[in-house]
Amino acid sequence: MSRLTEPLDTPSLGALLAELGAEARAHRFEVAPNPCVGAAVLAGSEVIGRGYHRFWGGPHAEVEALASADASGVPRERWDTLVVTLEPCSSQGKTPPCTEAIVARGIRRVVVGSLDPDLRHRGRGLEELREAGLEVQLLENAAPLRTISPHFLRWLELERVRRPRPWVIAKWAQTLTGQLTPPESIGGGRWISGEEARAEVALLRSRVDVILTGVGTVLADDPRLSVRPPELTSKPPARVVLDTALRTPPQARLLHPRADEAAGPVTLLSVVGADASGARAAALAQAGARVHGIRGDDVHHLNLRAVLRWMWEQGWRRVLLEAGPRLCSSLLDAGFVDQLRVYTASIPGGRGESLGSWLGASSLEERLDRTVGEDQVLEAFPAPL
Q: Annotated catalytic, 62?
């Protein structure tokens, strides 16, 4: 059966790659630290399916594009080209290798905009496709990662590979003056952001490996840090509390999730050698918490790099920081926060310390300002220190 139209020429393929890359960037805060990737399936010169990597742990762009092509009704024998901004993955991660999906669909040619910058995988995907009999074309600089996914290049920097730590997303809600605790007359003295914003946070929780907080937040807010409907997941994020003296109460809601919620295991991190009561540790263990000792800067303060290294060793790669201004400031000042999501409500005043001065003095990259419900949202990647 003949093709619908003649194949696209090289300049047109380059233009399509640039377009897919620009569209993929819209998902940068949902996929980080993974790269933004866009893909399209062609029948001749006609695009019959597009796909994007939309969120961490979700289908890759190639898989979405193939599914979109399936839905187009165009017979598979007419599919001849897959165009993708980044070399298809060839290893098992949170999803199966994309190279296998491409080969299984009978695609004859793959056009790629950038090689995988990770030296452990660079070129392997293209080689697997060639070995399977596909024609492979690399159009370098058609979809440059430095433009589409600069955060991904930072994730792969030598210093970070040498001293690995997870990707940390700091999320907080603040009043107009930057306080993280509202006046007692607002939201029961607890809630700052509206229902729409809280629904977004529930979705974000379902797309991270672990939630990190401090004992001060546990004592002040008694949060559950759980995933609620409709975002329930079979593998809810673990929850970690920095608690040097084991002040978390055994009756804390963190340790007693509701039946209609999903909640991961709780670990309380204390300082090795700190004078924490054995009876207190036993009571917390009986309530369901794991108590683990970590190296401290002193008996009252955990070493934050050691905490992050320990989290990496647990296999956790994407961390959501939901904490008070003190812990947030410590991680921000140390350069350990990779991504921000800040909700600002139309509430004057508030209580406690403000993070407004930090935000005002910081250099933020790829900033996005948007509105959800009645709240303003700022998303950005802090510039490296």
A: yes
